[in-house]
Amino acid sequence: MSDWSRNRFVSTVATLLNRGPVRRQNMAHTDLPSLNVQLWYGTILVADLRNVIAHQGTWSGEYEQRVAPQQGKLETRVCDYISFCEKWHKRLKEDKNPNAKEFDDFKDVLNSGLWHVLCADGAELKIPDGPIFVHGEASWNHPDNEPTRESAAYEYWCQRTSPCT
């Protein structure tokens, strides 16, 4: 991920998730079906994601971490990344001006190509640039952008939840 896209993504995620669960409580479409998926890093189950939504091409959902450091070296690295994200965004919220270049320490995790979500229907959604973890939520950009990233994410969500029929 380039510095520009990483900064843009981190900024977008921080803006969207800065309000945390309150944002979900204030959603106008509370009658929409929820989407629950699993977040994977290769063969490692990282987290269960609940109430997943797509907004302007960015996915987010509340996460319950399943991976633990004692499970192995790679699992420890993933846990360190999650912890780093949460702490980095806490500093951002506290106006401590964290540097987006700090994410470079986790390029091996972010740019691995191993991130994906697995839906209950068996569908798999690749996450090319890895997710971001903020205030108990995981967030990532939709990988497709045809006709637009927002439209592609919404269509994928509709296929999983069937509210669009």
Helices, strands, pairings?
Elements (H helix, E strand, L loop, with lengths): L2 H15 L3 H5 L11 E5 L2 E12 L2 E8 L7 H21 L13 H4 L4 E5 L4 E3 L5 E3 L2 E5 L7 H13 L4
Antiparallel strand pairs: 1-2, 1-4, 2-3, 3-7, 4-5, 6-7
Outline:
The chain is of the alpha+beta class and 165 residues long.
Account of the 3D structure:
The protein is α+β, with helices and mostly antiparallel strands and 165 residues long. The protein is 35% helix and 25% strand. The chain contains 5 helices and 7 strands. It has a 7-stranded antiparallel β-sheet. The longest helix has 21 residues. The protein starts with a helix and ends with a helix. The N terminus is likely disordered.
Q: Taking all residues together, what is the mean pLDDT?
A: 84
Number of helices: 5
The fraction of residues in strands falls at 15-25%
Strand arrangement in the largest pleated sheet: 5-4-1-2-3-7-6
Strand-and-helix sequence, N→C?
HHEEEHHEEEEH
Low-pLDDT parts are 1-9, 13-29
Largest sheet: 7 strands, antiparallel
Helix-residue proportion: 25-40%
- Principal-axis shape equals globular
Distance between the termini: 36 Å
Number of strands: 7
Rg, Cα atoms, Å: 15 Å
State the secondary-structure class: alpha+beta
